[in-house]
């Protein structure tokens, strides 16, 4: 019976030190896998020395770090979703505590540090989530429209009419611009991020009414309309993972 040799190794890369588990297996090529818990595994044929595995990890360090960061961020999102049932939520980059209050009327309101849900039966968790989601939907539309009008004011001199707003759940993008429909679609998840992050996405989409592609002219206009868009984009991607 063949045994699989296992070695825990650490290499210094341009992205920092990476510790990984190295194994010789019956495989044809060097294989690399990053698990959801952030652990890195490398398997290789018996003929491949450990030094070659080190070099392979170093060459893939950027990808490995991105995967580790992505998995960690997804776990954070799962924790935030769990926190909703535990009484926590994130709105415009801030953490809020959800509280219930017995009331004949059922609605939600945002105060300093709290989302207060007024409801008849404070023990009805499903109803609590329903009331919260109804409030969040209306609040998200209010905020997005506010940002849309604010950004649009910069584009009025360019002859751009105010477009229709659609809010959707999207897993691959923050927003999209449908020039032929005069419509901007925004990802509802952005309500978790600060206003400047939302504004940069809206500005990006408005720029597409002038330049439908991502040409140099598009980015020149984006730089002019939103000079901080790079920092805003980076912050958005660190706070809200699609």
From TrEMBL:
Coiled coil: none
InterPro entries named in the record: UTP_pyrophosphatase-like, YgjP-like_metallopeptidase
One Pfam family recorded for the sequence: YgjP-like
Residue span, YgjP-like metallopeptidase domain: 28-238
Source species, domain of life: Bacteria
Gene3D superfamilies reported for this sequence: Metalloproteases ('zincins'), catalytic domain (3.30.2010.10)
Protein name (record): YgjP-like metallopeptidase domain-containing protein
């Amino acid at each position: 019976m063949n045994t699989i040799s296992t070695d825990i190794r650490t290499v210094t890369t341009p992205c920092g030190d990476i510790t990984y588990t190295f194994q010789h297996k019956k495989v044809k090529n060097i294989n690399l896998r990053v698990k959801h818990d952030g652990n890195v595994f490398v398997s290789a044929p018996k003929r491949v020395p450990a030094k070659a595995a080190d070099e392979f990890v170093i060459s893939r360090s950027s990808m490995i770090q991105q995967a580790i960061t992505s998995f960690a961020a997804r776990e954070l999102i799962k924790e935030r979703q769990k926190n909703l049932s535990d009484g926590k939520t994130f709105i415009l980059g801030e953490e809020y505590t959800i509280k219930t209050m017995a009331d004949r009327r059922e609605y939600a309101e945002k105060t300093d540090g709290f989302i207060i849900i007024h409801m008849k039966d404070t023990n009805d968790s499903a109803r609590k989530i329903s009331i919260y989601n109804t409030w969040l939907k209306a609040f998200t539309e209010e905020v997005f429209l506010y940002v849309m009008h604010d950004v649009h004011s910069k584009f009025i001199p360019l002859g751009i009419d105010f477009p229709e707003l659609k809010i959707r759940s999207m897993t691959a993008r923050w927003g999209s611009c449908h020039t032929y429909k005069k419509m901007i679609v925004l990802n509802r998840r952005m309500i978790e991020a600060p206003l400047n992050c939302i504004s940069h996405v809206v500005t990006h989409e408005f720029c597409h009414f002038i330049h439908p592609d991502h040409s140099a002219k598009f980015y020149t206009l984006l730089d002019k309309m939103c000079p901080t868009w790079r920092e805003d984009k980076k912050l958005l991607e660190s706070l809200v993972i699609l």
